[in-house]
Write a structure and sequence with these properties.
The structure holds 2 protein chains of 2 kinds.
Chain A: H1 6-32, H2 38-43, H3 51-72, E1 86-87, H4 88-105, H5 109-117, H6 121-140, H7 145-148, E2 152-153, H8 158-162, H9 166-191, H10 206-226, H11 231-247, E3 252-253, H12 255-262, E4 268-273, H13 277-282, E5 289-290, H14 299-306, E6 312-317, H15 321-333, E7 339-342, H16 349-353, E8 357-358, E9 361-362
Parallel strand pairs in A: 3-7, 4-5, 4-6, 6-7
Antiparallel strand pairs in A: 1-2, 8-9
Helix pairs in contact in A: 1-5, 3-9, 3-10, 5-6, 9-10, 11-15
Chain B: H1 11-29, H2 36-50, H3 52-57, H4 59-65, H5 75-93, H6 109-129, H7 134-143, H8 147-164, H9 168-171
Chain lengths: 398, 177
Amino acid sequence: MLPIDVIAVLGKYGGYAVFVLIGIGFGVSLELAGFGDSRRLAAQFYLKDMRVLKTMFTGIVVAALLIFLAAAIGLLDFAQISVTQTFLWPGIIGGLIMGVGFIVGGYCPGTSLVSAASFKIDGLFFLVGTILGAGFFGESLPAFDDFWNSSFTERYLVSDWLGWSIGATLFAVTLMALVMFYGAEKTEEFFRTKGTGKVWSWKITRRSYIYGASALVFTALLVWVIGQPDPVRKWNLMESRYSAQLSSRDVFIHPLEYVKTYNDASIKLVTLDLRLEDEFRNFHLTGSENVKPEDFLDPKFVVLLSQLPAQGVVVLIASNDSVSTQAWKYLKVQGVNNVYILENGLRDWNTIFAGKTISGKPFNIASPPSEVLQLFPKDAFAPKIKISTKKRSGGLCS
Amino acid sequence: MKKIPKPYKNPYFAGAILGVVLFSAYALTHSGLGASGAISRIHVAITKLIWQSHVDALSTFAVMGAGDTNPLDHASVFLLIGTFLGGMVSAFLNGRLKVEIFKGPQISNVQRLIFALIGGLIMGYGARFARGCTSGQALSGGAVLSLGSWAFMFSVFIGGYAVAYFVRRLWAEPKLT
């Protein structure tokens, strides 16, 4: 199931080789589109040649349809895709600045690279400019650090903002793109300088445009109709990937490992107690939160867990394994990292800690201090927690 | 040997290829495409050669190249190398690999290069400000429907259109072939 992590599969250098290959594809498509030519890019802003808009939006729509179609039929797990974090206002201001740079210099970073690669001196100068500009930004950042880190949302999709399903949003985006393409064609016809008629490298008839557009609309409709999988369907699709972790009991942690994690200041621990309210009131671990099994299907609840920092660990406590493993599955398929289950819930808790003392003094068994660990032999438990610090946000541009 | 450059591909066709490449990037690496991160890394690598303590002192540089960290040991740099190679290969195959300066007919070569450098400076600055370039933020973020990326994308266009009129002499009568 996609996405795969090439660096994990092929090792660092094998992974880097794949990045070079993807880059080649990127460079080729930019070059073929004519993005190595500043005049072409600038013409976008004088409405004479709208190829920037056409190529960009075709690329976005095609990629989005492939991603969400693959997710809908269970080929790709969208929760594992890294979505660029949103810093709304810094993004908007930065975008405006870049728009100015674009029209003054004639390129953007990626296209200047392609231009320089094809020996265009202006592309090379622009590229050198971007390197210096990145430096100036770093130098000036301390002056407005607060603003730069403001209006932050980890993973905020257009569909979340509209309150629509992903399928409906994607359908609307596809239609919007087609309307924009139509507008772009008409605008070009109107503004195109006389005597420089359309010359395309291959004959494209009106009919093939209609076919292309229909294919996009049809795919978008298909994605909408199938819908993005809910956690239940996702588990059915992804069971083979994760069930081994359950059957080998790799995700069940010993109470002592819990105590160790609980006392580790470098770990952000979230303990979720799935027992009944009465049981919870009777006794619970300090800092734990009483939740209901159905909370794990509530996107608003789950998103808080998936946005934990990289050193975040979620531990589930329930009276029986079937409740806790169910919750574990739901969290796993929704992209929450580092989820563990407290072995046997709290049933062993008392037997392990009752009557124990530290230097002769009893301690609060709802929040055992780390000294407790010294009361047990070192091999009292097999450590299971492996924090995967895989950063899923950010991406390559930051 | 004089090669006649072939015309560029139909923009929708090129866009479709771009879309497939972007999808493969997501499918194989979890993340999309980008260039500005790697450009920033090149800057840090150069700065590091001459002024290590400065790299350590500024947090944005330190993330990439503090102490013994090699700022270029990062996937984005290899993506950038690939982009460069891809651009070169495609230009070569299409007879466009040629030393030249693209400019509007009304300005001199020197003027064009100065403006390219200034534009690049502004772009590099803005790309760091926005945490991503056109390809990283707009294209990659747009394809996964990230709201911030869509807002960003429209502000790039707004920024460009707002200033286009005032710099029209740079590009007036672009020769379209």
